[in-house]
Amino acid sequence: MKKTLILSLVLCILLSAAGCSLLNPAPKDFEVAxxxxxxxxxxxFTEDTGGEWSLQITNxxxxxxxxPFTYEELGDITPEEIYALQNEDIFTRREDTKxxxxxxxxxxxxxxxxxxxxxxxxxxxxxxxxxxxVDIPESELCAWVLVTTLPEYYNxxxxxxxxxxxxxxxxx
Length: 172
Hints:
The protein is an alpha+beta fold and about 170 residues long. Helices cover about 30% and strands about 45% of the residues. The protein has one domain: Protein Transport Mog1p, Chain A (3-Layer(aba) Sandwich). It has helices spanning about 1-25, 70-75, 80-90, 155-165; strands spanning about 25-30, 35-40, 45, 55-60, 60-70, 95-110, 110-120, 125-135, 140-150, 170.
């Protein structure tokens, strides 16, 4: 009887631990090529190689695409100006662009993050685009980050994408 009780308790503990890891996948680091930066995302994300981005990851509901810059590469352009230029560039190649959430700006942990949410049509399909600037002045690095998703997935990926983008940092 005691053995059965002990085995049952051990089994419950193991199943609980396994259940927790299934519900909250372990984070995974992705390196941003040539910029000594790293981005952390849930285990469900995989790297999508072969594009024009220094890093692009996906979980089949959203794409997170990273385009980093050194201050030296920017020359006389400020990080905020590159953010505006990148946004303008992408939306000149889309139709029916609308701002869904106005620009926000916050500074914490030595970096500034600017964020704006847009909708636009590409090839007849509406997509949501969350545009970010992550500026890390101490390291003289910044990155324009684009999260792309379908409207029906936006609410489920919104908080996670903010967390992923906020994780962008210089590799230690």
